[in-house]
Automatic annotation (TrEMBL):
Name by which UniProt lists this protein: Ribosome biogenesis protein ERB1
UniProt family annotation: Belongs to the WD repeat BOP1/ERB1 family.
Biased composition (Pro residues): 343-360
SMART domains: BOP1NT, WD40
Subunit details: Component of the NOP7 complex, composed of ERB1, NOP7 and YTM1. Within the NOP7 complex ERB1 appears to interact directly with NOP7 and YTM1. The NOP7 complex also associates with the 66S pre-ribosome.
Lineage: Eukaryota, Fungi, Dikarya, Ascomycota, Pezizomycotina
Gene3D superfamilies: YVTN repeat-like/Quinoprotein amine dehydrogenase
Keyword terms of this UniProt record: Nucleus, Repeat, Ribosome biogenesis, rRNA processing, WD repeat
Region span, Disordered: 1-129, 328-386
Positions with biased composition (Acidic residues): 37-80
Organism this protein belongs to: Saxophila tyrrhenica
This protein's record includes keyword rRNA processing: yes
Name of the gene this protein is made from: ERB1
Amino acid sequence: MAQRAGQKRKVVEVPRPQPDPQEEDELDAVALNGALEDNDSEEESEGSEEAGLDEDEDEDELEDDEIESDEIPSSEDEEDVRAQVDKLRTNDRPNTPPAKLMGSDTAKDVSSLSPETPMKQLGQEGRKRKQLLRTEVDANGEPRYIYNEIEPNYDSDDSDFLVPTNTIGNIPLSYYDEYPHIGYDINGRRIARPAKGEALDSLLDSIDIPEGWTGLTDPNTGKPMQLSGDDLEVLKKLTRNEAPGEGYDPYPDMVEYFTGKGMEMTMPLSAAPEPKRRFVPSMHEHKRVMKMVKAIKEGRIRPYRAPTEEDKEQDDAEQDFASYDIWSNEIPRPDHPMNVPAPKLPPPGYEESYHPPPEYLPDKQEKETWETQDEEDRERDFLPQDHSALRRVPGYAKFVKDKFERCLDLYLAPRVRRSKLNIDPESLLPKLPDPNELRPFPSICTAMFKGHDGRIRSLNIDPQGRYLATGGDDGTVRVWELQTGKQLRRLRLSSSEAVNQVSWQPSRETCIIAACCGENVQFIIPQGDICNPQQDRRSREVLDSGFGYATSNPSKTAAGVDKPSSANWLRPSTTLQDKGVLLTLTLRSTPKTLAWHRRGDYFSTVSPSTAATSTAVAIHTLSKHQTQHPFRRLKGLAQTVCFHPSKPLFFVATRQRVRVYDLQQQRLEKELQPGAQWISDISLHPLGSNLLVSSYDKRLLWHDLDLAATPYKTLRYHSKAIRSVKFHPSLPLFVDGSDDGTLQVFHGNVMGDSLENATVVPLKVLRGHKVVKNLGVLDVEWHPREAWCALSGYM
């Protein structure tokens, strides 16, 4: 056991019998080692208990620790040990052999010892010192004493001093409040209660706060708890709520942003290339380039070397024997991964052999069939032939043509691999209903009206659907019974001018036909059984009411002068009045188109051949005999017009545009762009939301007025110009007539809801009029209620 602090250490020497000569050397070494080690070993153990030094520290550190410890050694022992060590080092007894020295802390001669001299026994303690010390010879030939490393053995006195721990277990410390101790250590000794209260406060005031002091008390020992820097950092993170949760990995794997397969160009922020606007040109390079340009202009630097005569001769020789290999580069280019090599011709088969097998030779019928077919429909460009020898094969007549087409294939080939989708073309087409489910629609010709000489330019059916009025090149207007095809009335308006347009007034209370012949518009009341007495009387009142209004309310200018009229409303001659013509409107140009307003009081005429575009379109009031030209300057050449069925909108079609005007606001409402080269006719749907435009360039254009200004659908079903197009007044049908002599009937269902698109389904192709002088169907018209369609042209 280690000696307590403050207690003097005493050495007792015990006389010992003379050792054997064989053991003399070993005992002398042990005695010498013991003399040198006695104080050092004790000091070493005491120093390790207080300061906790490592066992591998050198002797100087042990001495320093010994001085710093709180153990006060005996002054007499210290002086005695030092005197004996000095005497050994100075070798005061040169004549005394080491064998006669007694191993003790005094190192006296054996001969000088007496039985009364106190001596220390050399037992286990001597053997331990012998194991802890070894002797070596230094460079000067003198002995050198080296201590072995101490192996910790906790059941020996040389072990490190253990701090006493409280072993009371789970008993609370409050049970020891009345006692001066707080528990017991492992050996059963009491553990004193540490100082507290005034004594601790005075101690803390007298000294600085040590590092790691937290003010906490260990519940087991009652002493202040000291924490390391790492422990304090953990506590700080816990108080700041910075502790990581479960599964947190403080050392994650590194993410290789710039290495690895497929991640060479991946950037953590952006993989976009550097923009050109960040490029800053170098002024130094600019100056050098300008110097080079100046030298080239002055001729001091020649960018190209002038060819010599040898170079020219070599180029001429290469041109004479020039050869081009179209298969020289068949490897796909690395800069374009989708590149494909040039297609190769398939190898020749048995058909191309000069002596093919008999089964490949065509018979007489196959030869005739092949010769009568078109070149595009033939499976092969040649017929297999049999020759007895290769030298008998004649030259191929299409050799140059095949090579030329092969070169074109190589030149025009895209040479880029494209992904082809295996899609059935029929699946891309919209699913249209069966035409049989969309009946009724016209399908056969039921009646033919013959009587005109030449072309029938125009036709129209009365609002009640009983009579048909026609006008043609012979200058006559004829009225037919629609169901029987019987001609009821015939009226000649002119012998030199053709009737360009005929139209019934849309009112059912009247029976008036407006016919455009030359520069006149004639208003006719058909005689006979066509009109009943009430319709005849009402029709005459409508035509005569305008004369009184024009007389009582003449149009004047701002200065009060009578305004000259561009049209004259007159009574026709007596001859025409007897035939039923009661009113004549004379214009300055020939009207080609006449369109009525839904109320029957207003109508508009279009004169495309007029000299001034401002007078091309005119709006007339029948009840007041007034004529107005709404446009001071019209853009384009007017072709046809129509009124909106429910709104004060007026549609004017020029050659390439359709403009919609608001008559009340007197402004342009919308401009449609059909994209046609020359518009021939327009037709407005009864709901007023869709417009059909026909053109001379074989196209029929469907415009949805609620959508964009461009066509909603473009229909191409005719091979020649389309002359006329009409919507049915009550059924979802429309029809167009073309110069190719055909009539296309379509199902056009228009929903009242603007969210649903219109449905267009082709139903029937009707063939009627002959094509004479490249003119076919000139005009079409629908029955007001039935799915009956009438068309005009050459008979």
